[in-house]
Amino acid sequence: MIKLTESLFNLEPNTVHIWSFDFNIEDEAVKKYFHLLSQDEQARANKFKFDKDRRCYVVSKGVLRTLSGKYLNRNAQDIMFSYGEFGKPKFEQNTDLNFNVSHSGDLATIGFVTNHTIGIDIEKIKNDFDTFEIASNFFSKKEIADLQLISKPEQYIAFYRCWTRKEAFIKAIGSGLSFPLDSFSVTLDHDFIAEMQETHWDKSEKKEWNFHTFKPRAEYIAAVIVKNNFCSFKTMELDPTNLI
User: Fold this and answer.
1) Mean pLDDT, rounded, for 203-226
2) Which domains does the chain have, with CATH numbers?
3) pTM of the predicted model, to two decimals?
């Protein structure tokens, strides 16, 4: 776990900070995060049927508020969010700081950057499904062809490389699944090297996007994308109980 200091929250231009954390923490810390939420967020949290889903929501929102407060030099309770047509969140405050959030399994991850569009996705890797059945509905022709070239033991991880990168891009542009998923292609043959291969609506746009992929744990994979090829990425693991 990284040691938290004020200097960590000095976000330099063209730098992306990525925070990963486990939201399975003791009940007392969950309660503290709950009290940071807005009334609307608290009401939504109380509607979750399962404790795991509620805990994930409360801790993820609470950590987002706390980290955002540190970057913006504001109280966590004073942070306000608005949402795009397809649900992409952003700060309601006038700021150049942008963020995106994702969670899967027991982990969540949040990316922060100034002045650039960002999307992030994390997935827990499973191997109990037909990769090609899902790929045929969500991947481009090039991605499906590339997946077929991967050895069978590696096809599940290759699937998740592709899935997280595509999902991160969809989240970055904020269009949800209304955006045609076969209109762009990403690489899927390497865990830590990722590129946009095709953007059918504008062949040159693929050069404008910068991927970063990482594995916060052995059974997870995540991808971050920003619309700026000059960004560098800093990945940090966080213990939520040390933040509040």
Assistant:
1) 95
2) 15-116+232-242 (3.90.470.20), 122-226 (3.90.470.20)
3) 0.94
